Write the structure tokens for this entry.
Amino acid sequence: MSRVVCFVAMVLLPMALYAQEAVDWDRKMVEYGLVDLQSLDGDILVELKYSSEDNFVGVDMYGDLERAYLVPEFAAKVVEAQRILKQRHPHYTLLVYDAARPISVQRAMRRVVQGTELEGFVADGTRGGRHNYGVAVDLTIASPDGEPLDMGTGFDDFTLAAAVKGTPDTSDASTRTIDVYRRYVMGLAADGIISEQAAKNRVLLLEVMCEAGLVPYRREWWHFEELRSISETRSVYRLLDF
């Protein structure tokens, strides 16, 4: 993280968190019709990165929120991905880093990176992105002891090494297939950008998620979403406006 981001985070985030202290996040998520992912499958691990200091801003953004909430039909796809993973590797499990994100937190995150080199990686919260509608999940695969597999980079990495595709995302299914992603990721290994083992692990994650009906965002191996445009997403789902 740059010194600029660290400084801005120290200035702005205490104010953002103070304003959020009184919010009952779990109650609000349920009121908006979202479901706790672990209530559907208790074997899925959850470690919300924005409910800790282990994230790109280095500050706990979520406070008391520790559970991963999603729109029910989206959560069902994550549960299906877990079933597929367990079928292939019984000792592995999905480990969730982020799920539904209130728009107030999105705006606080944007204020932190405003004017820095990370600004382009964080939506401004004007209309909300997929996380702000409860239809995006950030996750990885964990080993039996709960340790995440090597994916070539950690969570919240903004370098080329975190990418799974070199072309823009579209809602055209032919451009977002497991074959497209597999070729790109194995190409990263061939170019020495990530290790061969990391590439294999990343492809495994891609395979189980794609088979369950979710596709990755091209810049972030950990982020998965539905194959629909953001405009359609906004028309179908409800913004988490709290």
Remarks:
- The chain has one domain: 3-236.
- Residues 1-20 have pLDDT under 50 and may be disordered.
- The radius of gyration is 17 Å.
- The first helix runs from residue 3 to 20.
